[in-house]
Amino acid sequence: MDFWRFRSCHANRKKPTRRSYTIYRNMAENEGDPDGRQVEVMVAEASPAGTSAGDGRRKVREGGRCPCQGRWRTMAYVGLMGIFVFVVGFLLGYTTPRGSPCSGCGDLMAMVNDERPYETDDKQDGALLYWATLREMFQKYLNEETIEGTIRKMSEAPHPPGSPRLDALSRHVLDAFNSFDLDHSWTDSHYVGLQRPDWRQPNFLHRVDPGGAVLEKLPLGDPDVYCPYSGASTVTGNLVFANYGRREDFAVLKQLGVNPRGHLVLVRVGEISYAEKVANAEASRAEGVLIYPDPFDILEDPRKPGLSPNMSIYGHVHMGAGDPYSPGFPSFNHTQFPPIQSSGLPKIPAHPISANVASYLLRQLAGPVAPQAWKGRLPAILYRLGPAEPSFRLQLGVQNVKQSVMINNIFGCIEGRFEPDHYLIVGAQRDSLGPGAARSGVGTAILLELARTFAAMVRNGFQLRRSLLFVSWDAGDFGSVGSTEWLEGYLTMLHLKAAAYISLDNAVLGDDVFFAKTSPALVSLIESVIRQVDSPSRSGQSIFDQITEQGRRWETEDPSYSYGQQCLRLHLLWGGPRCGILFCRGERPSLPVWCANSRLYPFLNTMLDTYDNLNRALYGRLPAVAKTVAEVVGHILIKLTHDHLLPLDYWCYGDVLLEHIGRFNKYFTQLKNRGLTLQWMYSARGDYTRAADKLRKDIYSSEEHNERLLRMYNVRIMRVEFYFLSQYVSVTETPFRHILHGRGPHTLGALLEHVDLLREAPEAFDEVLFRRQLALVTWTLQGAANALSGDVWNIDNNF
């Protein structure tokens, strides 16, 4: 019966080569019947040892007339053979162990249980191995040349949202999904507010005298290089240097007696996002922000072309994700929005400038010399903090205008067989303000190749338990606008159905290999995969071995691996614009996959982000490196879409919570002296650990192929990440609600920062605020513990 379901499941798929499927092997069209209408049925018969099983094979042609019709002898023979086969089958079924991998699930591929170790020998007697077989199938269909062609096509010219160039690329992506014969492909459109330069009133930077007369016009470079969502105004003031524009940098300025209030602030690219730099400057009452690339942060390789000192780097400055003019609401057509805008929109202007302009400005500064750690590599610059002489005045004019633009997210889906309403989502940004080879070209190429490869695997026998969703996002350069709007439109449904998300944005940036820190639930799975995928640059060595051979961690937090606004800390927060969708908000396990050292590629977010420059940065190995990323992602997706139980490590959060909460122990005495305690929070963490332990024991003691239980367990596992979102803060006002990786007073980080005042500034400690923060964290943890327990009658905690 399973055989016939298998045939009907694939009957509506277009096949480049017709095949006849059996439990044992695939038969090509030319193996037997030339018209391709043959159905092959394997009949198990008792035969002496060494006799071929194929001796019992019978062929039945569709539409053919049985030559034995009306012949009593043949009918009697067929009847006896049927009885004989039934008896043999019954005996074999009776003697076969009930715990065999396929006894309960009806899987048609001969394979071992998916819980067996990856290291199992392929040559063992018995059935083919799941992991080895599918790896071989995946490698067979993955095509490096196709990836290369797509990267070249995507990066021929800039393609910002709403442009004719992007419209053509969008049609290409949708046509590709259609040609792969996926189960579903469609486009989701939104009408969003984007900010662009006004060509009638170009942005400018002037040096002016105290009366406002222009003394010198300073070049801003390419008019298409700007900061989307900057405040639109003209401001005048002196200048202060604030290093990377971090909060601690502004604290150093305060300690050294330099006040940014009323001045423009000059900051370097790197460490934090453009949006955070501008938000910190605005909090310090600065008038505007100028952002430049310091050679120290680029670390240019002399063997490769570097960033020109006259070039600047673009980046949006919205402290959030999605359309800032409809925060929390999906930007569908005809939707009525309240008259509000995102609180993350800055009120002060910001603009990128080149290293040459920054050198000129830094030479004008007086005041204290900057700390040694603040000094970059601009030639002949002392790096003073400022301000300059009182007569030195700068005037910055940013005249960006808001435009309503229709954007399109493009989807392709392969449905799962047993849990089709549970989704594994892999996405990549499609747009770019520049040519975008690294920005969007590589990610889109890998996305399309993965869709094509998985579709080919399904046509040749691979069965997905869960649905696989491939998404090409629009308006990513404006802060994951496309992905966030889609999330906001389908938030309730996605909370219940999305299991994990893999981001392909900026997947290849240099010739080093590492992965941005990801969800703890995915760490074990990723490590097992990269131990088996070969390094793109070292034959015979796995990615894991290459990364760790010098004592490095494969998931790194080292800020030296950041460049521009692509700082790893954005990924650590899951709130940066690069991750996008609900997964960046911490609502699903998220994996931003990078195969790069971004500091070795200086052209990201510039007009020189071309195929040739990126390929040169990789010594001519761009297609090979991109293919390696596709292999890693593909192997992860195979496990996530096929295993009976989702391979997400919900148990690890017990240790993660212990690590975070353990940082509070050193404040025990100070809290006790004030009559305060953190015992509630400790108890909630203990309840979560007990709930996770109970779930693990329930899984191991349950029937392996009970589909009802499997689905119930998978639902609880896939929602673990969601449980750590605070339910006590508004999603529209506090979009990053994860208590570990989010931002806001509800997070463990905010509570720790407040408690730290007991040592640093006891007079600033607010007991009322402390109790509120503690309650927010505690009850979020307790809610996660209760949800992981399952049904209401299964909750057993010691809170």
Automatic annotation (TrEMBL):
It is a single-pass type II membrane protein. It holds the Pfam family Peptidase_M28. It is found in: Cell membrane. Its main location: membrane. It comes from the Eukaryota. One of its GO terms (cellular component) is external side of plasma membrane. Residues 409-541 form the Peptidase M28 domain. The keyword Iron does not apply. Belongs to the peptidase M28 family. M28B subfamily. This is Transferrin receptor protein 2 isoform X1. It comes from Pogona vitticeps. The gene is TFR2.
